[in-house]
Every structure is written in structure tokens, then in C-alpha cells.
């Protein structure tokens, strides 16, 4: 059996972000009950399968975190902040607070769940290569170190009832555009119709379209072959989108 089936509840933490929006939409269209958590209200896009719950990862209590994931079958953690100091750090939303402490608290809450079957965490390529360029620069303020700590917390949360998947995408590009970054300026479109390159561990370098990343997350949730895997992923525009069979084969190799 796959980790989730139509009708199961999936909590998407970070569901108001670019990748989180796409994951929520794909899951809802497939019949899952999607619970999006965010500090701000989130539109359900007129889809009754999407609901919203307010959750502040930095200031929220342990009880609020546990309440957010109650009775869920799967948890997607797609959160983050800027790698370098910006206004997004206001209110304590630093990489350490979000990618390390908040993810760790979520993982600990998940480990106590009686219904959760799978955790999917989105981090970044470079977590194991912080002594190499360009990750040496990207990690000047510790964003990759914080993400690595979050990964370790998710591994520790895994048990006989809960397995996990850790995705390490390249630089996220393409819509939906929620940040004023290079991708926003260039208005790069596309995604799941394109192929991907996937490799176990942290070995790739390149960009990853948000829609391709979202599709990979959905595959991690629904594919029975995905269990306790960690992989990097970048877009490959020379190929077409992967079939379920191709994803199954990739997960089995991992």
C-alpha cells in the first residue's frame, strides 16, 4: 500500500509558498484532504479538499504544532527563509529558527502521532558540501547548516510506523512567484512537463523548477517504493516528465 490514499489527510507546512501551493493543489485534485498551515490565511482556491489552519512556527507552542498535524496520514515540510539577512528575517525568522528549530519541533511532534505514516522534508542541495563553491558562499549565515539539522531531526522521528523522504532541490525557479528573486524577474515558467535528474544523496548542481519539485513531493507521498530515501533533484529540460514507473524505479535504486 502507498503511504497515502485518496481521502487521507496531508498536512502541508509552508503551504502558502510556491512549492507548497503546488503540492496542495496536486494533492487536492487527486482526492486527498489537504490541511495547509500558515501564519496568514490561505485561500482554498475554491477546492473543498483544501483547508487552512493558522500556525506560527517560531512563536507557536508545542501544543499548537501537535494540533496542526493531528489525525493526519502524512506531513510535508516545505519551509524556509532567505539565506542572507533580509526583511524576511524580521520577527526571528532566521534560518536557524525556521530550518533547524521549527523543523525539529515539527519532527518531534510528528514522532508522537498515532496516525502519521510519512514525513516529506524539502531542504536544498549543498547541505553536505558546505566546504565547496558555491555552497561555501550560500552558507555564510548558516542556512545549509540549519537545513542539515532539520534533516537529522526528521530521520530521528522515523520509527516502525513513520518513514521519511528528504528532497534536496537545486535553486528553485519558475512559478508560482512568491519572492522577488531572479526567477520572478525572468518569469521562468514550466515544470512538471519537463524531466528531472535525481541522484541519491547530495551530489547534483543546477536549478529545479517548482512544479517539478512539487511533483516529486507528491510521488514521495503516494509511491509505495518511497521509504526512507534522501535525494537531490534538478530539472532536465531535455527529457519529458517522469512516469510513475520511472519514479518507482528511482526510489527502488535508493
UniProtKB/TrEMBL annotation:
PANTHER family: FLAVIN REDUCTASE-RELATED, UPF0659 PROTEIN YMR090W. Residues 14-222 form the NAD(P)-binding domain. This is NAD(P)-binding domain-containing protein. It holds the Pfam family NAD_binding_10. The lineage of its organism: Eukaryota, Sar, Stramenopiles, Ochrophyta, Bacillariophyta.
Amino acid at each position: 500500500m502507498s503511504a497515502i490514499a485518496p481521502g487521507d489527510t496531508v498536512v502541508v507546512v509552508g503551504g502558502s509558498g510556491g512549492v507548497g501551493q503546488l503540492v496542495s493543489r496536486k494533492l487536492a485534485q487527486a482526492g486527498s484532504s489537504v490541511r495547509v498551515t500558515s501564519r496568514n490565511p490561505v485561500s482554498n482556491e475554491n477546492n473543498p479538499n483544501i483547508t487552512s489552519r493558522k500556525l506560527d512556527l517560531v512563536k507557536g507552542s508545542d501544543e499548537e504544532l501537535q494540533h496542526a498535524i493531528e489525525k493526519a496520514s502524512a506531513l510535508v515540510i516545505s519551509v524556509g527563509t532567505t539565506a542572507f539577512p533580509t526583511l524576511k528575517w524580521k520577527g526571528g525568522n532566521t534560518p536557524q529558527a525556521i530550518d533547524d528549530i521549527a523543523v525539529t519541533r515539527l519532527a518531534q511532534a510528528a514522532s508522537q502521532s498515532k496516525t502519521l505514516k510519512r514525513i516529506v522534508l524539502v531542504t536544498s542541495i549543498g547541505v553536505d558540501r558546505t566546504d565547496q563553491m558555491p555552497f561555501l558562499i550560500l552558507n555564510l549565515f548558516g542556512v545549509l547548516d540549519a537545513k542539515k539539522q532539520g534533516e537529522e531531526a526528521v530521520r530521528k522521528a522515523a520509527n516502525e510506523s513513520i518513514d521519511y523522504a528528504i528532497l534536496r532541490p537545486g535553486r528553485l525557479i519558475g512559478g508560482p512567484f512568491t519572492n522577488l528573486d531572479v526567477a520572478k524577474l525572468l518569469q521562468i515558467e514550466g515544470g512538471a512537463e519537463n524531466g528531472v535528474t535525481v541522484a541519491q544523496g547530495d551530489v547534483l548542481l543546477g536549478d529545479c523548477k517548482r512544479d517539478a519539485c512539487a511533483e516529486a513531493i507528491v510521488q514521495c507521498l503516494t509511491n509505495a517504493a518511497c521509504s526512507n530515501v534522501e535525494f537531490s533533484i534538478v530539472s532536465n529540460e531535455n527529457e519529458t516528465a517522469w512516469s510513475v514507473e520511472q519514479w518507482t524505479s528511482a526510489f527502488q535504486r535508493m
